[in-house]
Amino acid sequence: MKRSCWKVESERQVAYRVELVDDLLDPANHQLRNALKLDGSPSHRLVVSDRLVWSLYGKDVLRYLSAHNAECQVQLLDTGEKKKGLEQALAVVAACDAAGVQRRATPVLAFGGGVVLDIAGFAASLYRRGVPYVRIPTSLVGMIDAGIGSKVGVNYLGKKSAIGAFHPPHEVLVDPAFLRSLDHTGIASGLSEAIKIALVCDADLFQLIEADVDVLSSTFLSGASHQAVLTRSISAMLGQLEDNLWEEHLNRLPDFGHTFSPGIEMATSPMISHGEAVALDMTLSALLSVRRELLELDEFERISRVIEAAGLPVDHEAVTPELLADSLEWTVRHRDGLQRAPLLTGIGRSCFVNDIDAGELKRILAELRERLSIS
Ligand SMILES: NC(=O)c1ccc[n+]([C@@H]2O[C@H](COP(=O)([O-])OP(=O)(O)OC[C@H]3O[C@@H](n4cnc5c(N)ncnc54)[C@H](O)[C@@H]3O)[C@@H](O)[C@H]2O)c1
Ligand SMILES: [Zn+2]
Question: Deepest in the core among 4, 52, 120, 171, taking most CB within 10 A?
Fold first, then answer.
């Protein structure tokens, strides 16, 4: 009899390096040359960046590539979350085509903040069903979060990251010197993701941030602890991502602060930053943890003090009980029918819950506003 059923099983091993590097764009430093598979013979690469980042560092990138005998085609994206859509991703796909990007041999360079990395990575996942790309994150969010995992994507239908892919980078090169030109909002946004990962799994990291938050939030690089905060945040984040790179498990601690924030981020006008939305979510989730007797009130106060000192908001007029409930509904679909909402059982400790209801959200928001009005 003819066989009519086949079972296909295959595993894909992924390995990529995330490396802290000094003087990344010094032509004498060969780390980027190696990552881009340049060998000194005449070659061509596609670079994707945004207009602001390129105005600051474009010359240095061009000088570096030219020193290694590489010409480049530059695709500049419009800056900002509002423009993080399919159109820009498809423009990068077209640029891949025009630049003659090959299946394996000519990695694309994504150079910028989280928005550039997400768009360029998504385009790289689409072109020829996936071409390699190297990430150079230039923002703090990029260095400790968006730039080091496997997820890429864009907003669609008014929904945050509604379309995307898992497309791990070929390599990630992190040079903290780029942070010198980042503004306060950018630094605060990055600190928000550092606080997030600290709260769910690294109490020592939280203490480090807490002890130096005033300096870290003004000019990150001058803080005595900036190096430790950067390396610990990357380690803690990779520790959470590595065993679950394809998100087989949907109970994810890095989702703390990301239960309500996707809806909040998209609903604000003018739009607040990703990290600001995460901060609003973390504050509410921490207070929710207190009301469920999982977290002590003084721990909540420490957390909200650090969030505010980092230059982040703990409340926003756009946040309503209805918005929180709608955001939760979208998140539940994303998490396969369950809330899987990370809450805190202490600083550096966490759990998941599945039973937050609209009434509880209304009470927590009212309590938060009452606390803020008397403090
Ligand atoms: N894929 C993921 O796993 C993941 C994780 C976290 C965040 N994200 C995404 O990342 C985005 C947020 O990242 P972001 O905060 O970097 O946003 P962003 O890329 O919009 O950068 C913020 C601003 O900083 C500017 N900038 C970047 N580097 C700079 C530098 N060195 N000097 C001066 N200005 C600089 C950018 O031009 C932009 O104006 C959101 O879209 C979020 O959804 C993705
Ligand atoms: Zn985030």
Answer: 120
Would you name the residues annotated as active-site residues? Answer: 151
Q: What is the pLDDT of residues 41-64, one digit of tens each?
A: 999 999 999 999 999 999 999 999
The Cα-based distances of 331 to 34, 260, 264 in angstroms read 40, 7, 12
- Positions of the chain with pLDDT under 50: none
Closest protein CA for atom 5 of ligand 1: 146
Ligand 1 surroundings by CB, under 6 angstroms: 50, 52-53, 56, 79-81, 84, 112-116, 118, 138-139, 141-142, 145-146, 149, 151-152, 178, 181-182, 186, 189, 273-274
The first and second tokens of residue 155, run together, are 């907003």
Q: Is 98 exposed, middle or buried (0-12, 13-18, 19+ CB in 10 A)?
A: exposed
Which atom from ligand 1 is nearest to the alpha carbon of 142? 16
Cα–Cα nearest to 125, from 167, 172, 76, 77: 167
